[in-house]
Amino acid sequence: MIDEQTIIKVGMADLNVGSQGLIRTTGLGSCVGLTLYDPGKKLAGMAHVMLPSSEIAREGQLNIAKFADTAVPELLNRLLALGAVRSRIVAKMAGGSQMFAFAGGSDTMRIGPRNVESCKLALEALNIPLIAEDTGGNYGRTIEIACSTGVLYIRSVQKGAKEL
């Protein structure tokens, strides 16, 4: 990774697309960093998904980047608007940790695993193949995708660095 590259930042409950440099998000705990990539056009996109479903959203302005069921289609639409070819788009994702241990088996507290599952369902509904993932565990991650190659760089204090 070269320090002088363009860095496109994606905040929490945010998404972005690009054609140069790196797209980065930090602080992935139970959140999922989902990336889409068109290798032919070298276009990448990333969403920092906080929650599995927009059905729980309160009234008011809906943040489509916050929820798996709304962020994934929006990310795809933004890539297509830049000229990506739908049939070439592939996905990678990281995060979805279970950051805290809870007594009892309440599904509502399993946000990380539910985020991963919801992202996979959204990709399946859009017929986008998930070609790599680094999900689960109980640690945080920072991820970057290189627009030129589609390589997903993952860093964590506990597990070091890896590439997908």
Describe what is shown at a glance:
Helix 1 packs across helix 2 (111-125). The protein has helices at residues 68-81, 111-125; strands spanning 7-9, 15-18, 22-28, 32-38, 43-49, 90-95, 130-135, 141-146, 152-156, 160-163.
CATH topology type? 60s Ribosomal Protein L30, Chain: A
Helicity level, as a percent range? Answer: 10-25%
CATH architecture: 2-Layer Sandwich
Find the count of extended strands (DSSP E, 2+ residues).
10
The biggest beta sheet is recorded as: 5 strands, mixed
Beta-strand content estimate:
25-35%
Output mean pLDDT. Answer: 92
Radius of gyration: 15 Å
Uncertain stretches of 5 or more adjacent residues: none
**CATH class label:** Alpha Beta
Strand order of the largest sheet: 1-3-8-9-10
Cα distance spanning the termini: 14 Å
Gross geometry = globular
Family: Belongs to the CheD family.
EC number: 3.5.1.44
InterPro entries: CheD-like_sf, Chemorcpt_Glu_NH3ase_CheD, Cytotoxic_necrot_fac-like_cat
Protein name: Probable chemoreceptor glutamine deamidase CheD
Describe what you observe in this structure.
The protein has 164 residues and is an alpha+beta fold. The protein has one domain (7-159): 60s Ribosomal Protein L30, Chain: A, CATH 3.30.1330. Helices cover 18% and strands 34% of the residues. The protein contains two helices and ten strands. The chain has helices at 68-81, 111-125; strands at residues 7-9, 15-18, 22-28, 32-38, 43-49, 90-95, 130-135, 141-146, 152-156, 160-163. Strand 8 and strand 9 (152-156) form a beta hairpin. Helix 1 (68-81) crosses helix 2. The mean pLDDT is 92.
